Amino acid sequence: MLDTFVWWRGIALMIALLCGLSLVLPLPFMNEVVIFTIYVVGCNFMIGRLGYISFGQPAYLAIGAYSTAFYLFYFGSNPLVGILVGVLGGLIGSLLIGPFFVRLRSDYFAMVNLALAVVVFYLTEKVLVSITQGDNGLWFMTQMTSTPVLDLTIPSQFLAFGIIVTFFVFAFYKYLDGTIYGACCLATKLNEDKLQFIGYSNFSIRFLGFVIANTTTALAGAMYAVYLGFVSPEMGSPSRAAEPIIVTLLGGVGTLFGPVVGAIAYTGMKDVISNMIGNWELFIGFLLVFIMLVADRGIWGTLEPILARVVFPKSRNTDK
Amino acid sequence: MIDTQLLISGVIFGLSLGSIYFLLAIGLSLCFGLMRIISLDQLLYYSFGAYMAYTVGLATGSFWFGVAAGTVVAGLISFIVERLIFRRIYERDPTFSMITSFGLLIGGIGVIKFFWGVVPRPVEVPTVIQVDVFGTAVPVYRLIVIGFAIVVYVGIWLFLHRTIVGKAIRAAIENVEHVEGLGINVSRLFTITFVIAGALSGLAGGLHAPLIMVDPMMGLETMAFVFMIVIIGGLGSIKGTLISALIVGQVVSVGSIIYAPMAQMAPFVMMLLVLLVRPTGLYGSPLYKR
Amino acid sequence: MTTDASTTISNSEILKVTGLSAAYGEAKVLFDIDVSVKPGQIVACVGRNGAGKTSLLRSIAGFLNPTAGSVVADARNLVGMKPYDIAKFGVKYVPQDKKVFSDLTVRENLELASYATNDHNWDRVLEFFPKLKQHMDRKAGFMSGGERQMLMIGRATLGSPKVLLIDEPTEGLAPGIVTHLRNVFKELAKMTALLIVEQNLPLVCAIADRVYAIKDGRVVAEVSDKDAITFDACEQYL
Questions:
Q1: Is C95 within 8 Å of B181 when comparing Cβ atoms?
Q2: Which of A197, B234, C2, C227 is most buried, with most CB under 10 Å away?
Q3: Cα(C223)–Cα(A289) distance, integer angstroms
Q4: Which domain holds residue C187?
């Protein structure tokens, strides 16, 4: 049931929030938040709707980033096309990898994806060093040409672009949620046997979800590439495999706005804590444990029911 | 045509690597088989084992004392972690424990960074004696490591098959509720198993220390390999873990003689192939709901 | 839980369940159940599949936490205790699934029970089930359904339990074995109380001192007069 007004209301609110924050917070911070949000949305979808945890999101991020980088470094110079190439790379990658991974049960799936992240990292750092320049990375900031309407080479305009992309990504996922497919995803997480008996193929549902989620991740990678003007193996480093998961949990699994809340909170914390403590791992590790033990619905997940009761006391429509 | 000497030392190296992986992987496998948790923090105990070997080894002048200290400290820490944290989450599904233990691993890396900093710590091999094996000079230390793995494997087998607690653990791996129904305190079984796993991981770290760079990220770097081993062998099977660890050790070692970069990727490809044929690994058990 | 009137019961009840309600998450399965068993009695619960009989036994044994009500055995409140403590206290649950520890031998299965209860005297068990002697060193998984059921009950009798909660023991078993079990139950009742869930009505009529009929999670009938326990009386509730 697509109550159009409510549908748009939530997303519009979020976009307004992002725009508002852009006016007060520093530009680099906001750009980071926006791209990171897109990164997390894919992960959020996988955990919250498909019930799959992947410790290998950096792999798909790297695939997207490096696809864009290859295009911009070797072939062309239009950043928009570059992003498209990145998305395409992610799409192809997940189409190829999906059939192997998706038939696994959830714990194997998580591990196998991490192994993939290690392999991709290794590929970018050592094996394909002739085309990736290894740890030196690929630099193409100066090679990018300006784009009409919104010049992606200018950070402030990139931010505007980023917010627009975020809007469409959220709209897409929200739409998906309301379709039969969206219901299938949730069902496959909750009770796959029953779903099979009804006649749905768990495999196809999961495979499609896998492709969608990881292509979104690749999109984030592509955007990182264009924003930063360079890529390096570090982007796909397995040690950062926890990041999207932590942020997803922090924000609230399976909620619509979780990724945004989580991204803002995480990026903010990173800045603040890094200056204060300097030992980022210590903080993030125990934060994760704390979240899992105490508040595993995340910030938005815990806040949302409370807000819903306060703001819409009679409404039974919880935006989930 | 590979030089025989190179091949033999490659095989020995592979066996010693496989031995260390086995010690590490067995913890993961046991914890899963009995408690249905994925205990990624085993890699933290592995790191602690290595760092203890460094610190205590330096302080006492004896490497073996350091290894012993590493094993004991790892066991102690895992005891605390089990009591404080894992006890609360046994009821949840394995992915929950995976994330939580990953948080512990990362947090633990932070603790290591805090105490030891990021600069890699060198640990000296306790003996540089070389021994002649089929005409090749092989470091004795590598053979000692292999020896440890054999002793541990036999020890675990004896524990599980000849002691009443071990039998209770095997029974609980089949069905925890039935064991509870007999009146056996399964909570204690869980703790015992977890501590054994942690201690073995610490031992693996201590033994591995002279062979690699001891730095805060060592746990993460090894994690992918351990994953691949555990997946190929099948979570929950000790025999599978041993076989898988040996195979992967060989593939990485002998493989790097043939063609270095592929040696790191070959286990991954193997894992994919195994998963195609048997999605739960060679000897793995399907994920039964309890 | 605080001691209230329900715990100061007459010594004649070895197990008293009062007002028991339970649920699996949101799904409620038991509503306000009252059951009592006296020492030496064989009490049966009959009812259709899904009526809540197994949930009742599991609640008493500690595998399912009640949402309301109390379970008192031998003046001890069982609610909130861990299942292994309840078993150790003497209230033993024999599940329906006829699964023994298949990788262990029969001997080892019994050894585990002895280890838990500190009762290493297997004479009585082997008296009840002489067939087990033949299979002592075979892996338990290779035995037939009937033999496995015998092992399960045999294991549970070690340690002189106060109450045995047995879930559908004769399901799927050959008539000869059923008769054997019937005699074993009669002997067992001399030293312990039995609460048996069964769909085998002839068996129930033959040995039960009291019958509870369970339907949709509630006790719908209770027959305490042994003579009144007839096939027809029970069948109406199935």
A1: yes
A2: B234
A3: 54
A4: 15-235
